[in-house]
Protein: Aldehyde dehydrogenase
Organism: Microbacterium terricola
Amino acid sequence: MTDYAELLSRVSAPEGSGREISDPATGEVIGRAPVQTVDDLDVLIARAGEAQRPWAALGHEKRIELLNAVADRIDASAEALAELLSREQGKPLNGPNARFEVGACSAWLRATAATPLDPEVLVDDGEAHAEIIYKPLGVVAAIGPWNWPLMIGIWQIAPSLRMGNAVIVKPSSFTPLSVLAMVSIMNEVLPEGVLQAISANGEVGGALAAHPKIDKVMFTGSTATGRAIIEASAGNLARLTLELGGNDAGIVLPDANPDAIAEGLFWGAFINTGQTCAALKRLYVHDSIYDAVIDSLAAFSKNMPMGNGLDEQNVLGPVQNKKQFDIVAGLVEDAKTRGGRIVTGGSPATELGPLFYPITIVADVNDGDPIVDEEQFGPALPVIRYTELEDAIASANALDVGLGASVWSSDPANARAVATRLESGTVWINQHGTLHPMAPFGGVKGSGYGLEFGVEGLKAVSAPQLIRS
């Protein structure tokens, strides 16, 4: 078991070096992130290449054993990890936040370890036999975001290690310390060089994607950065899994019960204070229940406490960084000038701190308004009225993103019929954003390509080989 102070000291750069990392809730400097270079990257990749072959040679059974031991070690230091995550990212300890995220890391490790990927027999007719087996790729680059830095990190790391690859982790420059800490804990169990992290700027991230010794790049983040990674990786033909930006639409059908769906709508939109790739970001509600849905959602929202993440009662935190805070505030201000009606929130919660923005529901906005067409990635939800279902479906499909979508209805068959017409990697019914380690997840259109989780996630970090006899 490792306590918070020991964990932080283990990964922080010495005083006077590195880069300051501040708590977004208070502005307090909590530590200093190491600043590494492209030269450091070359050393790490060479070490990973040397470690990968003996790691692969251990076989599935031994790697599974070690991944389960890693999960145990994360559980043993869960509270220290959660505190560091809360201080660095801003999310509260309680609710679906820091403790939840750390718990998800160990749970996902165990689920990935338990997922079988057996040879697939394609032909066996007495005259010919053909089967596909899955082999390691080599060295995987895992480039992560700042919103769920540990959990998304594990989504990249766990399947890669499970299949016998070595991994180089590049965390976001906004949240490096918690990722470095998790990697440090994992390396108490793993062989040296199999899992390494580099704390650096975007230039090093680009060099990582372009490096000739990188066989696979996994990236979660913006569509713009995803395009840059595609270009950077073209020279080495690295395989890619890209989970990029989204602007998830939800459609509330006229038979939905406003009170029954309010809680699901709230957490679909505002989990992690809205800073989630597959959060509900545009809500289309039928005219007949439009006001009732808004009223029920607003009433539920008012009972959700926001504040410093280390205060046990809070379940909503600050926007993680000033750049994202300004995007959220700017979109809300623009909506006001276009006639948007502020139902809740609508201006910075300066009494809580400089980066706090309250849960904001904006009614009476339209397609084409920036708050509808642009991803807010924060605690602001536009609600759009519709009368014809065909129009709502067309609106949901109109943007060049397609990570997730949802349909809300009291009639499951009707909801499913609408769901199949939506252009997104996942469509939820009467929920939004829920994930399962055995259910593949990925986007379409500008939201990226490739699948994570379950058997498909293991295949994505493997090289298929056909055996004929």
